[in-house]
Amino acid sequence: MLNGVxxxxxxxxxxxxxxxxxxxxxxxxxxxxxEPAPPDFPERWLERYEAGRSEGTREAFAIEDETGAFLGVAxxxxxxxxxxxAELGYIVAPEARGRGVGTEALRLLTEWALSEKGAERxxxxxxxxxxxxxxxxxxxxxxxxxxxxxxxxxxxxxxxxEVWSRLPSDPPPA
Length: 174
Prior knowledge:
The chain contains five helices and seven strands; from the N terminus they run E-H-H-H-E-E-E-H-E-H-E-E. By secondary structure, it is an alpha+beta fold. The chain has a domain at 2-120: Gcn5-related N-acetyltransferase (GNAT) (Aminopeptidase). Strands 1-2-3-4-5-7-6 form a seven-stranded mixed sheet, with helices on both faces. Helix 1 (15-23) crosses helix 3 (41-55). The chain starts with 5 loop residues before the first strand and ends in an 8-residue tail after the last strand.
């Protein structure tokens, strides 16, 4: 556990932290958080992930430090059991950025997807202008596959996303 970073199942106790992420312009710009987010977005988001957790189709973790302080979220928005694949994502709180939190959270989340879910393919979908997230992906051994052009629509604006992947057979990150 680098820097004391750990993943714990996202719960009601993390809603204040999620609310802060929803109000952070950088988090909103680079994620699927709606803009503007409805006031009850953190609660509805948690409900969707709790339902997905019980169905085995998605998962959400809070990223915490050794004291239990909220550092962000690590997510599996999609877990496909038959295909043995997962899409993963992460949002690091502004005050925790630049300290390796995102890298350690993605490392732990990747380990979870491979060992707990038996994933044979893991994907990250990263906004083309989100350079810090691409650095995290590369540090965690993900391979950039290409760009999905004009695939994501937010507030009526189409955007491109990069696809990064990791397979169990890929070499471990350096």
